[in-house]
Amino acid sequence: MNFLSIPKRKTGNRVCGITSVIDLGIPLGVLQSILEDYSPYIDFAKIGIGTAYVTPRLQEKINLYKAYHVKPFFGGTFFEKCYHQNKLKEYVQTLNEFEIEWIEISTGTLDIPLEERLQLISMLKNDFHCLAEVGSKDNSFDMPVDDWKQEIKLLLEAGSTYCITEGRDSGTSGIYEKNGEIKSNLIHELIKDIDVNKIIFEAPTPRHHMFFINEFGANVNLGNIKLTDVLALEAERCGLRSESFFMEG
Question: What one GO molecular function would you report for this record (predicted)?
């Protein structure tokens, strides 16, 4: 159908308007069905937390995503576990073996110094597209706004393609309060000096989706999207939900 005035969505190999889903163990058969119908609305797939290490038929899953032009990558917790055990060399070898082209550099569980993360990106950016996650999974830690801004700026300058703002799959840390409320003042401060198209906001629930869509438009980058929410999110982006009803083309 093509008769309504709705926001114009980016299509094809999007560089903004990104939808990055989180895969926490969806079976291959179910994934195949979802991708057959909804893959045009999906850009990235994070094989979340450390599930890639224990996923059966992992290569088949990676190949399936790629067949539908979705970019797979491993969750940051897997990266941090390897960092903690001094296994980053083995981690990189694993990414190469599975032909994963994107790498997430995060510090959600470990407190990895910014300088080390910058060095890692500088070292890896020639072989991978880098995604740098900023913010802690510890919801008792309130990172100052200036630190958020400095880290994002420096990580992008070092060669990260995008920065991901931590929100967890529960929406209760990082850019969110413990109760799931959005730190809207933080978000507005971030985008004063940083290109919003270089940020992927983790937004695991419809309430979070709608905040970012209403603030930044249909083509805001969103991450940690549940596979079952992909179609509803696309409708939200197109002004086809009550909360985004008055968005027009």
Answer: phosphosulfolactate synthase activity
Domain count, the chain: 1
pLDDT digits (tens, 9 = 90+) for 135-183: 988 888 889 999 999 999 999 999 999 999 999 888 888 999 999 999 9
Q: Note down the domain range covering 183.
A: 22-239
Number of Cβ atoms within 10 Å of the Cβ of 57: 11
pTM above 0.90, yes or no: yes
Find the angle CA(37)-CA(38)-CA(41) to the nearest 5 degrees: 155
How far apart CA 14 and CA 41 sit, in angstroms, is: 10
Q: Over 70: is that where the pLDDT of 75 sits?
A: yes
Residue 89: pLDDT band (50, 70, 90) is very high
- CATH number of domain containing 32: 3.20.20.70
Asked if residue 89 lies in contact with residue 83, where contact means CB atoms within 8 angstroms, the answer is no
Tens digit of pLDDT for each residue in 100-120? 999 999 999 999 999 999 999
Q: Is 82 left (phi over 0), alpha (psi -120 to 50) or beta?
A: alpha
